[in-house]
Automatic annotation (TrEMBL):
InterPro entries: RNA_pol_sigma-70-like (IPR039425), RNA_pol_sigma-70_dom (IPR014284), RNA_pol_sigma70_r2 (IPR007627), RNA_pol_sigma70_r4_t2 (IPR013249), RNA_pol_sigma_r2 (IPR013325), RNA_pol_sigma_r3/r4-like (IPR013324), WH-like_DNA-bd_sf (IPR036388)
Source organism of this protein record: Virgisporangium aurantiacum
Protein name: RNA polymerase sigma24 factor
The organism's place on the tree of life at top rank: Bacteria
Protein family (similarity comment): Belongs to the sigma-70 factor family. ECF subfamily.
NCBIfam families assigned: sigma70-ECF (TIGR02937)
Keywords attached to this entry: DNA-binding, Sigma factor, Transcription, Transcription regulation
Domain RNA polymerase sigma-70 region: 22-81
GO MF annotation list: DNA binding; sigma factor activity
Length: 167
């Protein structure tokens, strides 16, 4: 009986390591784009993996579960941050990370344009154009319908186009 438990744990660890290696950097990028903060992005991704490990036997599609978990945590983080800014003196989202690097003018313009999107819109844009996910998978990650994804992307393009045309 104990041999079976050891074998199952070894398989779980191997599967976890494989998914972690394949997904971690992408999930950190998703979280960074949504939160604008590198340290928070890493924490969010690590927390999502920790939750997946606790629910390992229940999760059929780890990549989809992890994307959804990251988007959900990022949305919560941004909401808390907005409330903190409203009631105190907290720097704007991503201000410390952007100050650490000196991007070229085009990169700065794109970052500023993405900063005008709400977290859900940024996540939709990232999932569509960075991960090249179909609308159904984006909808699953965002917890909405595919038609909502189309609307989010359409509105996002309008905001991005408007901002980039100004620059």
């Amino acid at each position: 009986m104990q041999d079976v438990a050891v074998e199952l744990a070894a398989r779980r660890d191997e599967a976890f390591d494989r998914v972690y290696a394949a997904q971690y950097s992408t999930l950190v990028r998703l979280a960074y784009l949504t939160t604008g903060n590198a340290a928070t992005a890493e924490d969010v991704a690590q927390d999502a993996f920790a939750d997946w490990l606790r629910r390992f036997s229940e999760v059929r599609d780890p990549a989809a579960y992890l994307r959804r978990a990251v988007v959900s945590r990022c949305t919560s983080w941004v909401r808390r941050r907005v409330l903190e800014r409203r009631h105190g003196s907290v720097p704007p989202i991503g201000a410390s990370d952007r100050a650490a690097t000196a991007p070229d003018a085009d990169t700065a313009a794109v970052r500023a344009a993405l900063g005008r999107l709400n977290p859900r819109q940024r996540a939709a844009v990232f999932l569509r154009f960075y991960l090249d996910l179909p609308e159904a998978e984006i909808a699953a990650a965002l917890g909405c319908r595919p038609g909502t994804v189309k609307s989010l992307l359409h509105r996002s393009f309008g905001v991005l186009r408007e901002h980039l045309d100004e620059h």
